[in-house]
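Postdoc handover notes: sequence design on the structure in folder B. Input tokens:
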């Protein structure tokens, strides 16, 4: 910073704005003094970065699990400086997700070749009439697969292995697409409640972060130690006597497992943000939102990822 001694005005070296005080009102640049260049100051700033970083992240992660919807509520009220940014939390969750799934070597978010045949919008009762569309999508993916198979000139098994390796990498990169897709669904569902689309994106970033962290932890038990923590629930709710009812409301066991921790989180979060709505209405909306998000995550996104992997694989 240069200082004009006649008028006691600082000149910002970054944007050339003249200002009074310790910080530039235009870009936020801080007035520097000679002592700011000492080793002691450098060490203090380094320590402060890490303690400030840790403090924000620890506080934010804690609230995601102990107070669903709280961070979104604070963000909507303009209280943001005390917490990590939504996408910072998501990136941290994605790093944890990548690290754990890399160790385990498997994840439900990574499709294998042929998975395009499983999961379809027509599998939902009210959308059975869209079966021709699902068949067309599967057929087009098959055509693309045949083109790539011919291009590489390898056998089917080698192609499947190459596809999975590429899909495994791309699934970590493209998982960010869940935020705009799921955020759009949430915004449309609560269009009269979220003032801005960005509010829904913030909420979705927090939810997807929660989703990835919980999935990562559960995967350690499920794949590393072969402990299925949800087995008592699936055993109880998929008895022959209650199975038709359970399948009607929750679909497959795979979907139910996710609903068991998605629905409570979403219900508490929506209730905290939309405090004037009745619990019953919030619960009904939560149920439908959860199932829509499941479709986006494990049917739409996985099919999209299969297409992207086929197009980009090498």
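Designed sequence:
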């Amino acid at each position: 910073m240069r200082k004009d001694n006649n008028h006691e005005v600082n000149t910002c070296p970054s944007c050339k704005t003249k200002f009074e005080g310790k910080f530039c009102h235009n870009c936020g640049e801080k007035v520097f003094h000679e002592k700011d260049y000492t080793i002691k100051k450098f060490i203090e700033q380094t320590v402060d970065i890490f303690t400030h970083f840790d403090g924000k992240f620890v506080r934010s992660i804690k609230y995601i699990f102990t107070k669903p919807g709280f961070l979104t509520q604070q963000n909507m009220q303009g209280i943001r400086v005390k917490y990590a940014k939504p996408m910072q939390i998501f990136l941290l969750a994605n790093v944890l997700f990548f690290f754990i799934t890399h160790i385990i070597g498997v994840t439900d978010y990574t499709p294998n070749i042929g998975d395009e045949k499983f999961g379809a919008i027509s599998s939902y009762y009210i959308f059975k009439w869209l079966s021709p569309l699902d068949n067309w999508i599967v057929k087009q993916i098959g055509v693309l697969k045949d083109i790539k198979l011919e291009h590489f000139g390898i056998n089917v098994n080698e192609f499947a292995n190459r596809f999975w390796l590429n899909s495994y990498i791309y699934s970590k990169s493209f998982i960010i697409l869940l935020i705009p897709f799921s955020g759009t669904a949430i915004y449309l569902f609560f269009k009269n409640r979220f003032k801005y689309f960005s509010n829904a994106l913030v909420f979705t970033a927090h939810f997807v972060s929660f989703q990835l962290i919980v999935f990562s932890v559960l995967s350690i038990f499920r794949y590393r130690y072969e402990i299925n923590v949800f087995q008592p629930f699936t055993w109880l709710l998929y008895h022959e006597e209650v199975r038709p009812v359970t399948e009607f409301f929750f679909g497959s066991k795979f979907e139910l497992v996710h609903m068991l921790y998605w629905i409570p989180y979403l219900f508490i979060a929506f209730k905290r943000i939309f405090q004037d709505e009745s619990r019953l209405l919030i619960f009904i909306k939560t149920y439908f939102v959860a199932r829509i998000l499941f479709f986006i995550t494990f049917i739409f996104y996985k099919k999209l990822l299969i297409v992207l992997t086929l197009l980009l694989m090498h």
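Context for whoever picks this up: Strands lie at 2-4, 9-11, 18-19. Don't rerun without checking with the PI first.
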